[in-house]
Sequence to fold (263 residues):
Amino acid sequence: MKNRQIFFTLILATLLTACSRQKSVSGQEMPESREAKALLQGVWMDPESEEVSFSVKGDTIFYADAVSQPAYFKIVGDSIVFATGTKYFIEKQTEHLFWFRNQNGDLVKLEKSTDSTDVFVRDQPRILTYTHQVKTDSVVTYQGKNYHWYIAINPTKYKVMKRSYNDDGVEVENVYYDNIMHVSVYQGSQCIYSSDFRKQMYANRVPAGFLKDAILADMAYSSIDDTGLHFNATICIPDGASCYLVDTTVGYNGRMTMKTIEY
Fold:
């Protein structure tokens, strides 16, 4: 009986050791290759187009365009791994060559530039505004009464991140400033309605996941009828085709209502 207990104890210890070893070589716990990261330091370019793709300094990739944000990375095993969790398989890496598979599986071949690093754009990437400050107004007539409406579109400092892919098929992040829309409606000298609009006000009309990545891109007068003056609010993913169009109605009693009319 005692020998049998010893036997099962040894089996259990062996299994635990095997599991521990397997865990230690799993993807997330593998140590970072500092040697591979050291090889990647410098400016890398496409040898065919002779255009700079990115520059690496320390643990950060700086892109050559003026809007892509710097990206933190590490090299683990046979992949370059971004802070977002995106991985790209490395086909070949030497002191002067860096070949990897992009998100489509295409082979991207880069060479280390021997030119001065002055050719690389090192300024802080620009944060994009989806619209410039715009003010519009007009007078409309309904049932013999004149209504003067006024819209002001104002960029803010609220940042919205958008992920996309550059010419190399590599994930990059651009930053956009969201907007605040101001709408006022007057009948003669009497102010019927005046308020600022932020995208959060449309949380009941737009899915939360979409709203988080979207900006309030536009507010435009649409029409006037028995219910009031209609303004179309456009909530969009920056530089994308995905948008929600929400009818924002200002009633003659000064009350505001919303209705999603298009996606």
